[in-house]
């Protein structure tokens, strides 16, 4: 058994080329059947210069190939939806597609 907090400490990496995507921030669960449907991965892009823009990628659970000691390997197949994270003044987050 593994906890969500233990999963959040692992890097998410593409199995094909070893590119680090980011870190797990959340999981989506279908409560009707009790299965994980997606993992949510926080990424940072450097489109805004030194500071970067935070985004979250939703990766289907079927793309998770292996959960290792330090990394979670996922296959790079298709275009995953991304959500942009915007910080509000009260330090809570909101999501925008």
UniProtKB/TrEMBL annotation:
InterPro entries: PRC-brl_dom (IPR027275), PRC_barrel-like_sf (IPR011033), Spore_YlmC/YmxH (IPR014238). It holds the Pfam family PRC. Residues 13-76 form the PRC-barrel domain. PANTHER family: SPORULATION PROTEIN YLMC-RELATED (PTHR40061). This is Sporulation protein, YlmC/YmxH family. It comes from Gracilibacillus orientalis.
């Amino acid at each position: 058994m593994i906890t969500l907090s233990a999963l959040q400490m692992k890097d998410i990496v593409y199995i094909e080329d070893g590119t680090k995507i980011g870190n797990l921030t959340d999981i989506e669960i279908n409560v009707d059947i009790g299965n994980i449907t997606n993992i949510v991965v926080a990424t940072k892009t450097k489109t805004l210069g030194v500071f970067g823009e935070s985004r979250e990628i939703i990766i289907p659970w079927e793309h998770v190939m292996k959960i290792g000691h330090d990394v979670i390997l996922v296959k790079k197949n298709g275009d995953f939806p991304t959500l942009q994270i915007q910080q509000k003044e009260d330090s809570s987050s909101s999501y925008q597609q």
